[in-house]
Amino acid sequence: MQSRFRSDRRLTVRMGLTLFLLGLLYVGFVAALIALLKSWVLVVLVVGAMFVAQFWFSDRIAMFAMHGRVVEREEYPELHAVVDRLCAIADMPKPVVAVSDMDMPNAFATGRNPDHAVVCVTTGLLRRLEPAELEGVLAHELSHVAHKDVAVITVASFLGVLAGLIVRFAFYSQVFGGGRRDQNTAAVLAGVLGVSAAVYAISYLLIRALSRYRELAADRAAAHLTGRPSALASALTKVSGDIARIPTKDLRTAQAFNAFYFTPATGKEPGIERFFSTHPTLEQRLEQLGRISAELGEAATPGKAG
């Protein structure tokens, strides 16, 4: 079922291209592992099992990692009311609503499709935002679900996760067991390590390029759905500023899930790192929302959400 969120052809093209390139990389990666390990059954079984687990249980994995829990309407009536209203406007299935007991103000959406999706907000976000700002953030997250880019990011990130795990395994195997292996085994492990590192680096760059664009697409879709881009701009400014004041040690756990967050769990605005960031800069996002605000005839000043 097509939602009323604005379709984004450029996002669709980018998602398709990213999946195609990662698919080629995936095939080459598996072929290289089979050639190095000389056991296609083992490689296919392990890789296949990990892919199914990540895709099928991605929502549970993210919820567990971020201490999220499903909440019913009786516990958070205002939160449910906003999600209900937005889903009715967007004509899309209502996702599971969850809350994470974290002071870091943020939100994320996860799930393999719109019928099996979760939208989670932190208690830190709920405490800080005004109703119109919260509506903008939730509309942003729901647009990720409607555009299906949450599922694409989940699938796309699988290869990087797998390659990263293999790099760690091969590295620690060399460190702790290198002296007990013959030269042939050491060469195989070095080959696996090299291929995995290359695959991880390529997939890392592809995923981050897609992630930055999808955040801008979600901002656009949310602004048009709610008709109040200034409220979303206000939420962005407020959340980014508050995250910058949270101790770095409290952000480290969350940073592994930056690609799924409304704003990245980092205490500084990226410089050269913006090319490796999961999100566009705050200035880029606010500039885009300002343009949309002008198009809609709304006051562009953040915070004047009505």
User: Low-confidence parts lasting 5 or more residues at pLDDT below 50?
Assistant: 175-179, 299-306
Mean pLDDT: 81
Strand content: 5-15%
- Total beta-strand segments: 4
Q: Which class best fits the helix and strand makeup? A: alpha+beta
**What is the H/E order?**
HHHEHEEEHHHHHHH
Supply the number of helical segments.
Answer: 11
Q: What is the general shape?
A: elongated
Structural domain count? 1
Query: What is the spatial order of strands in the main beta sheet?
Result: 1-2-4-3
Largest pleated sheet: 4 strands, mixed
Radius of gyration: 21 Å
Distance between the termini: 32 Å
- Residue share in helix: 55-70%
How is this structure best described in words?
This is Protease HtpX homolog. Its EC number is 3.4.24.-. Keywords: Cell membrane, Hydrolase, Membrane, Metal-binding, Metalloprotease, Protease, Transmembrane, Transmembrane helix, Zinc. Residues 77-290 form the Peptidase M48 domain. It is a multi-pass membrane protein. The protein is 66% helix and 7% strand. The protein has a four-stranded mixed sheet with strand order 1-2-4-3, with helices on both faces. With 306 residues, the chain is an alpha+beta fold. The protein has one domain. It starts with 8 loop residues before the first helix and ends in an 11-residue tail after the last helix. The protein is built from eleven helices and four strands, in the order H-H-H-E-H-E-E-E-H-H-H-H-H-H-H. Helix 1 runs antiparallel to helix 8 (183-226) and helix 6 (131-146) packs across helix 9 (229-244). The radius of gyration is 21 Å and the shape is elongated. It has helices at residues 9-37, 40-56, 58-65, 77-90, 123-128, 131-146, 149-177, 183-226, 229-244, 248-255, 282-295; strands at residues 68-70, 96-100, 107-113, 116-122.
